[in-house]
Design goal:
Oligomer: single chain
Structural class: alpha+beta
Number of helices: 3
CATH architecture: 2-Layer Sandwich
Strand content: 35-45%
CATH superfamily: Dimeric alpha+beta barrel
Helix content: 25-40%
Order of helices and strands: EHHEEEEHE
Largest sheet: 4 strands, antiparallel
CATH topology: Alpha-Beta Plaits
Strand order of the largest sheet: 2-5-1-6
Number of strands: 6
Amino acid sequence: MNEFLLIFRRDLQSSEMQPSPEQLQNMMKKWQNWMGGIAARNKLVSSGNRLSNEGKVVKPGDVVTNGPYVEIKELIGGYIMISAESLEEAAEISKGCPILTVGGSVEVRAVIPMGT
């Protein structure tokens, strides 16, 4: 079994729209159901976390800048780790992600253990 990182991205403009409390609760339920289904199949490695909109970028030469940048059209909102037999299976699992219903996307990346 291999591990995959699922990175949740959303268009920066659409992410600025604030959902109502009812919409937010409905969306949270969809996320819980989707992740619960992955866990029930024993494929959830780490439930991950949401990421703040604020951050810093550290560059060579001790340069630290604010981020993310306004030029970026997408915002990374969070991630989880799953296990799957292949990249194709991980992508198939990602098709059920609730972020897809609000115009977002899921980036699926294989995790390569250090020393491999």
